[in-house]
């Protein structure tokens, strides 16, 4: 039998829906559905989030996080753990905070049909870019 070993990083790179776990002020986990983008070459996860949400506040207080993704059939999963940095929110549509979100979008989805509109929306929505340096990845494939 030529079974290929399971690499959970492959699933991280393929997945666009996951659950981000942050730590509440009382120490309990707080879970949020997110749309991650994993750069396997840099071993870094990115998530765009909004300032003022629980996950953002939790990460500003304690930058440790975990992100879990599952395969569409539910038979494989991968979890990445690490420390995050938050960039933004920006107040200038051409400022460095918004440009970081533009780079994230390009890497995750390609070209946007209207970059000026995207930049304005990132400022208006008070978007923040989470960057997680992945320290540990684990997972399994059941089938």
Characterise this structure.
- It is a single chain.
- The protein has 143 residues and is α+β, with helices and mostly antiparallel strands.
- It has one domain: Electron Transport, Fmn-binding Protein, Chain A (Pnp Oxidase, Chain A, Roll).
- It has helices spanning 8-14, 54-61, 96-109, 115-124, and strands at residues 18-23, 29-34, 37-39, 44-50, 64-70, 76-87, 127-141.
- Helix 3 crosses helix 4 (115-124).
- The mean pLDDT is 94.
Topology, number of strands: 7
Shape, per Cα inertia axes: globular
- Any guess at the CATH architecture? Roll
CATH class identity: Mainly Beta
The largest sheet, given as strand count, sense and whether it forms a barrel, is:
7 strands, antiparallel
What is this entry, summarized?
The chain is built from 4 helices and 7 strands.
SSE layout and pairing:
Elements: H1 8-14, E1 18-23, E2 29-34, E3 37-39, E4 44-50, H2 54-61, E5 64-70, E6 76-87, H3 96-109, H4 115-124, E7 127-141
Helix pairs in contact: 3-4
Throw out a few tags for this protein.
39% strand; 7-stranded antiparallel beta sheet; Pnp Oxidase, Chain A; 143 residues; alpha+beta; globular; 4 helices
């Amino acid at each position: 039998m030529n079974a290929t070993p399971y690499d959970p990083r492959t699933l991280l790179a393929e997945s666009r829906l996951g659950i981000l776990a942050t730590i509440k002020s009382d120490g309990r986990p707080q879970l949020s559905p997110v749309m991650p983008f994993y750069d396997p070459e840099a071993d870094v996860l990115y998530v765009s989030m909004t300032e003022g949400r629980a996950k953002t506040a939790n990460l500003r207080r304690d930058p440790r996080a975990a992100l879990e993704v599952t395969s569409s059939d539910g038979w494989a999963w991968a979890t990445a753990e690490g420390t995050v940095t938050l960039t933004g929110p920006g107040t200038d549509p051409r400022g460095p905070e918004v440009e970081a979100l533009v780079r994230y979008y390009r890497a995750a989805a390609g070209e946007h049909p209207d970059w000026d509109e995207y930049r304005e929306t990132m400022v208006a929505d008070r978007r923040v870019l989470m960057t997680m340096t992945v320290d540990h990845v684990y997972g399994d494939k059941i089938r």
